[in-house]
Predict the structure.
Amino acid sequence: MRQKIVVGNWKMHHHLEETQSFIWDFFKACPTLHPQVEVVIAPAYPFLCTASQMCQKSPLHIAAQNMHQADQGAYTGEVSAAMLRSIGVQKVILGHSERREYFLESDELLAQKVIQALKCGLEIIFCVGETFTQREEAQHFDTIRLQLEKTLFSRPLQELRSIVIAYEPIWAIGTGQTTTPDQAQEMHAYIRQIFSEKYGKATASKIRILCGGSVKPSNARELFSQKDIDGGLIGGASLKVADFLEIIQSC
Ligand code: PGA
C-alpha cells in the first residue's frame, strides 16, 4: 500500500508573513487531517529556513523548488543541496517544466542534479510532462519515457527507492485545463510499467506517482481515486490553506 502524498509548489508566491501564517493556519487544522497522507510545501528559497524551523517535528514537510548540481563554488545566485540539508530541508522538486522552459534545464543537467541530490540525501520529487503538441501528435508516451531514461534511469535501484514522480502535462499547468482522470491514469500506469521494465515489478509497485496541472478541490478526489495516482503536485490551489486542506482531504 503506497502512502499518498500531496505537495504544494508555491513557485514565486508568498512572502515571509504569508509563509508563516499559512503554516500556523495549517497546524490549527492538523487534527482534522488524515494521518496517512504525507504533506509537503515548497516555499521560496528565502523562507525555507523559517518554514523548516516552524515545521520541525510536525506532519508538514518542506521541499525546495530547485538546487544547483555542484557541491559548492563560484555560482552566483545559486543554492547547493548541502545548504538545503543544513537548514533541515529534506526534499527537492527537480525537472519542473517551468525550470526546463524558462531556465533551459535540459535532461542532461537534470541528470546531474539528480546525482547531487541523492548524494546529499535529499528526496526528489521529479517532474515529467509533455506539451500539447506532443500529445496531439501521440508523442506523449515516448516523451515521458525519454525524460525518465535520460535523467533517472542511469541510477541504481537502491538510490531511487525514495523517489516520487510527478506527471504534469505542460498544457495543464496553470491553465485550468486538466487531464481527465482516465488520461492521467493511463499515463501513470505507463510510468509504472516503464519503472517495472527497468527496476522490476516490486519496485515499480512502490514508486509514488503524483498528478499535477490545475489540480484543485473540485477535481482532486476523482483524480486521486485512480489506481496509479498517489496524490498531487499542486501549484495555484496550494496557496490558500482552505483549498490545500480540501485537496489533502480528497486523498
Ligand atoms: P498548477 O501548477 O496547479 O497551478 O497548475 C502545478 C505545478 O506547476 O506544479
